[in-house]
Automatic annotation (TrEMBL):
Record's keyword terms, sorted: Chaperone
Source species, domain of life: Bacteria
Pfam families xref list: Nitrate_red_del (PF02613)
Species classification: Bacteria, Bacillati, Actinomycetota, Coriobacteriia, Eggerthellales
InterPro entries listed in its UniProt record: DMSO/NO3_reduct_chaperone (IPR020945), TorD-like_sf (IPR036411), TorD/DmsD_chaperones (IPR050289)
Name of the molecule in the record: Molecular chaperone TorD
Length: 254
């Protein structure tokens, strides 16, 4: 099953997956987080807000942003640019972002074993072996579309943030095919997304989300876990795949 998406829907999903990619892969820094807060980036999303998990994630993220804004004593009448500039100069905001940085490192990187690893290999390879067959398969998928990670051979390609960025790229390519009227190419790119999700993301997404939920201490990263899970679950429904809460697994409708 492959529900065709129009250009606008693909563009909306593309943007959301790109944001999710950055939330997981990039270490929090003051200026980008200040922009998130000042613009109220998480007040809404262009795709997937009908999903309960995504909506909960956005609520938690937006709530963290509101608290950070108030703690930094930014005037209500300040424009988004003015608010971002004030946040960058605020010691209280600097400490709030430092707390996020510590949590990102603890959850997703770890001095030893991260508490909520973002690597597919951690969940599916024997003994959590890094740079195994799954990494090779993911790397080949990237290369078919002219992509190569910056830290090749020094960092596993199967990081969830990288894979969400890759899916965003496939959505962009599908959108371009749809806009060009090449429906056959568009369908082929949709099928590739289906296969990539099914093989490399969905089998371990629930354990990852539960780990984030268990170990995250800030509403920001509790929100990230729920938002990412809900976004992917919502998108998977276009391929007839839904999350079975009782089985804690994604299943394709027959």
């Amino acid at each position: 099953m492959n529900t065709p998406f129009d250009s606008d829907t693909l563009a909306a999903a593309e943007v959301c997956f790109a944001v999710a990619s950055q939330l997981l892969y990039l270490e929090p820094e003051i200026a980008p987080v200040a922009e998130q807060v000042a613009s109220r980036q998480f007040a809404s999303a262009p795709f997937g807000e009908g999903n309960d998990d995504e909506r909960q994630g956005l609520h938690l993220l937006d709530g963290w942003c509101a608290v950070a804004l108030n703690a930094s004593e930014v005037p209500e009448e300040a424009s988004a640019d003015e608010a971002a500039a004030r946040l960058v100069e605020s010691p209280a905001f600097a400490e709030a972002v430092a707390e996020l940085r510590r949590e990102w490192l603890r959850l997703f990187v770890g001095l030893g074993t991260p508490e909520a690893s973002c690597l597919e290999s951690f969940y599916v390879e024997p003994n959590s072996h890094m740079f195994g067959k799954n990494v090779i398969a993911v790397r080949e998928a990237y290369r078919r579309h002219g992509l190569e990670i910056e830290r090749l051979h020094r960092e596993p390609d199967d990081h969830l943030g990288l894979m969400l960025g890759f899916l965003s790229r496939l959505m962009a390519e599908e959108r371009e095919a749809v806009e060009a009227g090449d429906m056959q190419q568009g369908a082929a790119l949709a099928d590739e997304q289906d296969a990539f999700l099914t093989e490399h993301v969905l089998p371990w997404l629930a354990p990852w989300r539960y780990a984030v939920e268990k170990y995250a201490r800030t509403d920001y990263y509790r929100g990230v876990g729920a938002f990412v899970f809900g976004l992917i679950a919502c998108y998977a429904e276009r391929f007839g795949i839904r999350f079975d809460g009782k089985a804690s697994a994604f299943k394709r409708r027959k």
